[in-house]
Amino acid sequence: MSQSHLDHRKGLLITGIGGLILSVDIPLLRLGQGETWSTLLLRSGTTFICALIIWAVWSIATGRVKTILPGRIGFAVAGLYGLGSIFFMIAVYNTSTANLVFILAFNTVFAALLSWIFLKERPKTATFVAMFFMLIGVGIIVREGLSSGHLFGNIIALMSTFFLASAITVTRASKKDMSFAAIIGTVLPMTVAAFMVSQHGYSVAAPGWIIFNGAVITTIAFACLATGPRFLSGPEVAMFYLLETVLAPIWVWLVFSERPSDPTLLGGIIIITALVSHSIWQMRSSRRRSRMAEIRHPI
Fold this sequence. Notes:
Elements: H1 3-22, H2 25-31, H3 36-62, H4 71-92, H5 97-104, H6 107-118, H7 125-148, H8 151-174, H9 181-184, H10 187-200, H11 207-227, H12 234-256, H13 262-296
Helix pairs in contact: 1-11, 1-12, 2-11, 3-4, 3-10, 3-11, 4-8, 4-10, 5-8, 5-12, 5-13, 6-8, 7-8, 7-13, 12-13
Transmembrane segments: 12-29, 41-61, 73-93, 99-119, 126-143, 149-168, 180-198, 204-226, 238-257, 263-281
Protein name: Drug/metabolite transporter (DMT)-like permease
Organism: Phyllobacterium myrsinacearum
């Protein structure tokens, strides 16, 4: 078996583990039984401390001090990730898990639109088709929120998705290493949460779940998912992010008996089908281009 095939299998394994681990993020937050700002403070603080430890160990082991944020653009990206984290946590406590993860999958649409507007990267026809169906799916979920009382949480989830897509777009435009930007971005939600907790008090019934989430789950998940692009194409990596979209509602259903509503399931199925179909199309197109390049430039 060639080295490229071995690398591809390694990438599938590493990224698959990352996506699977990430799927328990929201259930663990719910198990913490904490108030929004207290949970955000504990989770962000734990993640930030662990990131600093990893950075220090990496720097000592390699003998090179890794740049945490590359200039002003790095602070902008960290700020966008921070805003996304704040709105994500608010959404966790103001809408159902199924609504949240299905709406977060809309990140792909926002990223494509922002890239088209600011990077002049016009989406292909297949992308427009996928975006159209995803809009229908999100529309069904948000509309259902009008009757279920989740409208505020659904809108907040959309805003979180927009900030995350903005961070990705700015990162791509800068062409700089932003591997630590998302972690440093926890400083903003940590600061905001600390202020809110000082005003309203701290309340987390089971802090161990939140500490475990911040120290282990998010650290390992994002390390694996960040490693994936070394061995896999972008569309293949994106496929594994869908594991959270599919599995998180199932874990919450099993643990908390929170069954997604029929409109939410319908909207989610439309979103996932559109995303999976588009990702498969992208992978096939990428492989076709690679084969053509090998034919034109044989070694």
